[in-house]
Request: fold
Amino acid sequence: MTRRLAPTDVTLGMYVQGFEGSWLSHPFWRSKFLLTDPEDVLLIHASRVEAVLVDEARSTVSFVGEKVAAAEPPRAGNVARRWASSEPPAREVWPVSDPHAADRARATKVAGASKKVMKRVFDGCRLGRAIRMDEVTDVVASIEDEVDRNRTALIGITRLKSKDEYTYLHSVAVCALMVNLAREIGLKETEVREMGLAGLLHDVGKMGVDEAILNKPGALSEAEYVAVRRHAEIGHAILEKGGEVPDRVLDVCLHHHERLDGRGYPHRLAGDAVSLAARMGAICDVYDAITSRRSYKEPWTPVETITAMEQWAGHFDPNLLFSFMKSIGVYPPGTLVRLRSNQLAIAMPNGRRGSRPKMLAFYSTCDREMIEPHSIQLADHLGGDGVISREDPDRWGLSDWPALRDHLMGVKFAA
Ligand SMILES: [Fe+2]
Ligand SMILES: [Fe+2]
Reply:
C-alpha cells in the first residue's frame, strides 16, 4: 500500500516511493529508497515537495493509524538521533546503528598496543640498542590482521596524533597503508609482510636526529633541514647494524623520500632506479603525513590529499598512486573509472560525511551507450562492485567529457 504523507511526517525506516511536485523541489537524484539516514529525513522535512509517497510494505516501520510505530525495539548500544520539535513526538524514531563501531574499537586497541611497542623500540634506538625483530614483526602481524578485517579502520584511527606520539603512530599508519597497498597490487604474503615492516621502520632514523629540530614549531634553517633529511641514511645504518633486516625494508628506509623525477633525497634516484617498494613507501608516507591532525595544522581530508598528490607531477608513480586510491577507496572527484559491473562511473564529491567512495554509473561498457545515472556503493569485499581501472573518455567516445563530467557531478545523492 502506498501512503501519501506530508514531508514533515516522514521518518527513518520509511521506503520513499516518490515525490509529488517538481523534481527541482527535492534534493535527491533518485526517488525510490529506504530512509536510513537522519540527515536525509531532515532534507525531506526542509524540502518544498508537496507530498511524499511511501511504500508501506517495503518500509521497516509499521504504520498504525495515524502514527508510525517501530516494528522492533531499538537495539542496545546504538546512537539515538532525534531532532527538536515543539510538538510532542507522534512516533517512535529508531536509533541509527553504527555498524563500524566494533571495527573502530578494535582498531583503536591495535593502534594503542602497536604505538606502545614502537615507542619502546624507537626509544631503544635513541639509546643505541639494536631492534629486536621478533618484537616488530609481531606488530606487523597484528596490523596486517586488522587491515584484513577492515581495510581502513586503523588508518582512520591513526590520523589523530599528538606531538609526542606522532612518529610512533605515523609508523603504525604507514605500515597499515603499505600492507593495504601491497594486497591491492597482489604481492605475495612474504612481500606483504616485508612492505608492512618497511612502513613500520621507515622513519627509524629520526631517532638519530636532534629532537629539538624535529619538534621545532617554526621554519627550519638550511642546516636544520639538512639534519632532518639525514634521517633516511641514519635509519638505514641503524637497520643494517641489526643484521637480519630484509633488503626491501632497508631500501624503503633509505629511499622513501626519492621522487620519480630525480628531485628527491638522499640519492636523487630517478625513474626505474626507484624501486617498487620505495615508490610505495613514498606514497604511503606522504598520504599519512598530510591527512594527520597535528597541533599546528588542520588535517587535509583523504579526498583533498589524494587530489593534491595526483597533481604533483614527477613526485609519485601515477599507476601505483591509482592502486593506492583503490586500496583506500578514495578518488579525486571527476575521475572516470571502469567498474567490475561493466559500467563507466564518475567519482563524486564525498560531501561532509567521511570518505566513503561515491560513484555515479552512467555508461554501459557492454552496450557502449549511456544509461540512466545511478549511484554505486563500492564494496570492500570481492563479489561486490569495485573499480577496475581509470579510463580515458576518448576511448569511449565521450567527446565532450568536461561538459558531461560537470553535468554528472551536479547530480545529488540520496544517501
Ligand atoms: Fe621520512
Ligand atoms: Fe615518514
Observations:
- The mean pLDDT is 83.
- DSSP finds 14 helices and eleven strands in the chain.
- Residues 170, 202-203, 285 surround fe (ii) ion (ligand 2) (CB under 6 Å).
